[in-house]
Write a structure and sequence with these properties.
The protein is α/β, with parallel strands linked by helices and 381 residues long. It contains 14 helices and 13 strands. The strands form 2 sheets. It has an 8-stranded mixed sheet, with helices on both faces. Strands 10-9-11-12-13 form a 5-stranded mixed sheet, sandwiched between helices. Strand 11 (323-327) and strand 12 (333-338) form a beta hairpin.
Amino acid sequence: MKDNLRKKHVSNAKKIVVKVGSAVLASSHDEGLDEAVFSNLAKGISELKKSGKEVILVTSGAIAIGMKKMGLEQRPASIPEKQAIAAIGQGSLMALYEKAFNPMDEKVAQVLLTHDDLGNRQRFLNARNTITTLLSYGIIPIINENDTVAVEEIKFGDNDHLAALVTNLVEADLLVILTDIDGLFDKDPKKDKTAKLIPMVKDVDHVVQGWAGEATGLFGTGGMSSKVEAAKKAAHFGVPTVIANGRGRDILKRIFDSSDIGTLFLPMEDRLTSKKHWIAFSARPTGRIFVDDGAKDAILEKGKSLLPSGITKIGGVFEAGEVIHCVDRHGKEFARGVVNYGSTEIEKIKGVKTTEIEKILGYKYYDEIVHRDNLVIYRAS
């Protein structure tokens, strides 16, 4: 049964996002990056490509290379320092990838993204079109966070999160996260020798990961916790995830040969559409709409849209087309969606019936403040 699931979700995938972290790329001998790992990764990706699959690579490593060049022994703490070190290392990172892929006669392209790029719907679609065009040219897109311009408000935080968002961006069939550990264990294997690998997770929403700490090592920014969160985001888009040890020889070939390697996270059956996944995970809400108990019940239990009559107050300034939090009278978020009216308009029509919208505003675009098709529900686990 497990082999059948592996074949269904892994071997048969046609478009794959592969994420590799700095902990995998880092040399075990010094503070640089291991060119042998780059070569192994390039060989695996090239073989997948030659078998008819499309591969998008999400990588870390720019800061690690920048630190090596500058002789730094500790990871920079401030955003400006990280930006500078990333700028120093990014060109060399791409040079390493070009060198690794050159023997396979593969061409690569650099794509740098910030949260703003994926949080804005038009830029999200522009990025999707660019990557789709690169794939049509036979080019391997290599994506990294644009650390040189990212600030605290727009940085992804770690490339696990970025990889999950890219999975939705390119509408991939599979996410592979390569790390320095064999997969998800029932305990922290670095602290407990009795820890056992979990080969398959059927419901990622209920994974207990209390042991999964933050980043470990000099270069990393995300621990196992961030990788499970990435798998959760992918699962809600209907995409499976494999977390495996990226330093293993021919690791990608072994994963796609249906070998029982790493941890396979199965996708959710009630998957979100690409648009709703973007609302839930990529977009950055710009305001809040408070609703009464009746409106909350209509949305959660009856599958209704948000109408002006159920709105009690608003928070923040936003325009039509932006994403907002829908919160109950206690301020707890239960949904998120794209508004059809701006905050100034909603302030005027909150609490009224839809038949009164045109009379108050002098026009009416929609009956709904947020249409059901543009709403994502958040239920307590």
